[in-house]
């Protein structure tokens, strides 16, 4: 149960002066607070014995007021110290998680769903913050304050009465311990259910268009209601187990009060205690009720904190399985070379790259084509260090690719993936993301290269147009071209387009590729695509199938060989010609209708 405090020791040590001051002021405040019943007891005795006069009344009044103001000031100090510490822990833990997420690659995010990561980064860390703030307050009250009260009760009133009153509280500790373990288990189950609901809500929001298109709204509503019902049951289970704590504490506290009144009355009748003593003792006992009741809250907070700490530690301890030990800076791009290179994904027994032999000289443009699942993206991922290094030789500039510093390699690369990720910001901000000090001139240049000028002119707010979450407010082709502009503004040494032109028409595609080749004559470019017209003018084309290179050469050379590339190119050429012809027919037909309408209007006139 207390393991969460041990694991948070690093934080308490880092902010030791803040917590030491908080604990010191809390302890002093508790000491001053327990003197209030003592003064009241003496005040009552003075009234009962008839010794009360104006001077004595003034003394008691000044003492009482002084204690009230002193404890008020001390409470402000420890309250700020403890609860500001809780917020600092949230910030520190979330920053740690974010740094961890940003350093992880694809294999890590295959282990955890997004909703689960969000739940652990929000609700679980909030539970840890409660432990560092309110939990520490309750811990001090349940231990230090209770101990101070017991000592004060024994010293100023009677030790036998104190022991008799505290005795019923011992069995309470056992009940709390047993039920606390059950709360721990139930809370962890409820947190897992919350993570699952989070995951499905994110998927529903992302896939809302598809859900509506297939008229599946009712199905998802029913599924969501079922999930939230299960989550409610699991949370209710935590509440049921937690509910026993307060009544248990009150039961044993009631027994203590009964003993105090009964035994105390006997001692008063025997002359052992005064009326003021028994009143002060009852006030001490009343002050002890909250610390005792708070024991149940402390157990709950620590149990929940322990469960949350395990969940947070799980995602921090998990890695992507990638180890980049290279320490050689990559200042410039060299020639790439693959020799007998093989690669398989960890979760698959299929060979994804099979005996790859490939040379890509610096400053050249390589086209990678092949049917879906042929290994195009897998080959590109080797350049991005997104997965473990395969078997065989992979070099750049004559040195093993793994010898280079990972961060310096990524500085050289501009990457446009298949799934275009745009941020819920303006067009300007999305494009400038690729270059920290990008000017409007840089942005407009990259827009021209990505053939996005006409679209931008049609946008009401131009560069300040908001694209919506994940680019929901713009078309697929516009998203692709903004992503390309974002990569081009970086002016990278290596530009990788991974099927990044699928949503634009053939004419726009040709314009973009021509712009890239003109601007990047001395830089390395890799274009992976399904549309072969996009790689006609590159220096070399490789055709992949089942992870292997089955054809290579220039466009003309591959056409002459009449293999897969030839067959596929002819099919696409016929399709493009047919679509173009149909477009012209529609255009001609519309023109004819307009002319006939104009002639008819002329005849009517």
Automatic annotation (TrEMBL):
Pfam families: ABC_membrane, ABC_tran. The chain crosses the membrane at residues 21-40, 60-83, 132-153, 159-176, 243-266, 278-302. Residues 336-571 form the ABC transporter domain. Keywords: ATP-binding, Cell membrane, Membrane, Nucleotide-binding, Transmembrane, Transmembrane helix, Transport. Coiled coil: none annotated. One of its GO terms (cellular component) is plasma membrane. It comes from the Bacteria. SUPFAM superfamilies: ABC transporter transmembrane region, P-loop containing nucleoside triphosphate hydrolases. PROSITE patterns: ABC_TM1F (PS50929), ABC_TRANSPORTER_1 (PS00211), ABC_TRANSPORTER_2 (PS50893). Residues 21-304 form the ABC transmembrane type-1 domain. It is found in: Cell membrane. Residues 580-605 are annotated as: Disordered. InterPro entries: AAA+_ATPase, ABC1_TM_dom, ABC1_TM_sf, ABC_transporter-like_ATP-bd, ABC_transporter-like_CS, P-loop_NTPase, Type_1_exporter. It is a multi-pass membrane protein. GO terms for molecular function: ABC-type oligopeptide transporter activity; ATP binding; ATP hydrolysis activity. PANTHER family: ATP-BINDING CASSETTE SUB-FAMILY B MEMBER 10, MITOCHONDRIAL, ATP-DEPENDENT PERMEASE MDL1, MITOCHONDRIAL. This is ATP-binding cassette, subfamily B. It comes from Alkalibacterium gilvum.
């Amino acid at each position: 149960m207390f393991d969460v405090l041990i694991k948070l020791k690093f934080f308490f040590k880092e902010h030791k002066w803040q917590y030491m001051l908080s604990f010191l002021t809390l302890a002093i405040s508790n000491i001053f607070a327990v003197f209030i019943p003592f003064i009241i007891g003496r005040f009552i005795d003075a009234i009962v014995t008839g010794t009360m006069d104006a001077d004595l009344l003034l003394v008691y009044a000044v003492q009482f007021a002084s204690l009230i103001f002193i404890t008020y000031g001390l409470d402000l100090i420890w309250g700020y110290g403890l609860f500001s510490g809780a917020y600092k822990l949230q910030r520190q833990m979330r920053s740690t998680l974010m740094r961890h997420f940003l350093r992880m690659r694809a294999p890590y995010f295959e282990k955890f769903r997004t909703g689960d990561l969000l739940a652990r980064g929000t609700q679980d860390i909030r539970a840890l913050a409660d432990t560092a703030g309110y939990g520490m307050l309750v811990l001090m009250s349940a231990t230090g304050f209770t101990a101070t009260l017991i000592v004060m009760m024994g010293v100023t009133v009677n030790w036998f009465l104190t022991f008799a009153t505290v005795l019923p509280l011992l069995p309470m500790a056992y009940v709390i311990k047993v039920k606390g373990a059950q709360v721990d288990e139930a809370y962890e189950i409820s947190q897992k259910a919350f993570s699952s609901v989070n995951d499905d809500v994110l998927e529903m929001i992302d896939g809302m268009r598809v859900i509506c298109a297939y008229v599946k709204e009712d199905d998802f509503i029913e599924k969501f209601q079922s999930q939230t019902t299960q989550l409610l049951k699991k949370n209710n289970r935590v509440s049921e187990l937690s509910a026993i704590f307060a009544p248990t504490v009150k039961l044993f506290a009631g027994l203590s009060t009964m003993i105090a009144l009964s035994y105390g009355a006997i001692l008063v009748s025997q002359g052992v205690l005064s009326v003021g003593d028994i009143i002060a003792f009852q006030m001490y006992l009343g002050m002890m009720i909250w610390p005792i009741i708070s024991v149940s809250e402390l157990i709950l907070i620590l149990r929940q904190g322990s469960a949350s700490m395990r969940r947070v530690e799980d995602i921090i301890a998990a890695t992507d399985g990638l180890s980049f030990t290279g320490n050689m800076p990559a200042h410039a791009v060299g020639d790439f070379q693959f020799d007998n290179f093989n690669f398989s994904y960890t979760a698959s027994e299929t060979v994804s790259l099979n005996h790859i032999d490939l040379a890509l000289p610096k400053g050249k443009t390589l086209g990678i084509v092949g049917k879906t699942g042929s290994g195009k993206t897998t080959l590109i991922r080797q350049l991005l260090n997104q997965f473990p290094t395969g078997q065989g030789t992979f070099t750049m500039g004559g040195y093993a690719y793994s010898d280079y510093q990972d961060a310096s390699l990524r500085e050289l690369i501009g990457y446009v993936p298949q799934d275009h990720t745009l941020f819920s910001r303006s067009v300007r901000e999305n494009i400038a993301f690729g270059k920290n000090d990008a000017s409007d001139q840089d942005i407009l240049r990259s827009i021209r290269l990505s053939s996005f000028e006409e679209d931008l002119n049609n946008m009401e707010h131009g560069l300040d147009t908001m694209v919506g979450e994940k680019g929901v407010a713009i078309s697929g082709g516009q998203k692709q071209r903004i992503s390309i502009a974002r990569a081009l503004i970086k002016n990278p040494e290596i530009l990788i387009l991974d099927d990044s032109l699928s949503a634009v028409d053939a004419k726009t595609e040709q314009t973009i590729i021509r712009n890239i080749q003109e601007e990047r004559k001395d830089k390395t470019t890799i274009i992976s695509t399904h549309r072969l017209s996009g790689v006609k003018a590159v220096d070399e084309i490789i055709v992949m199938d089942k992870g292997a290179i089955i054809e290579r050469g220039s466009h003309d050379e591959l056409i002459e060989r009449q293999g897969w590339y030839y067959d596929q190119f002819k099919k696409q050429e016929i399709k493009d010609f047919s679509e173009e012809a149909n477009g012209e027919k529609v255009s001609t037909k519309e023109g004819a209708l307009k002319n006939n309408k104009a002639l008819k209007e002329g005849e009517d006139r």
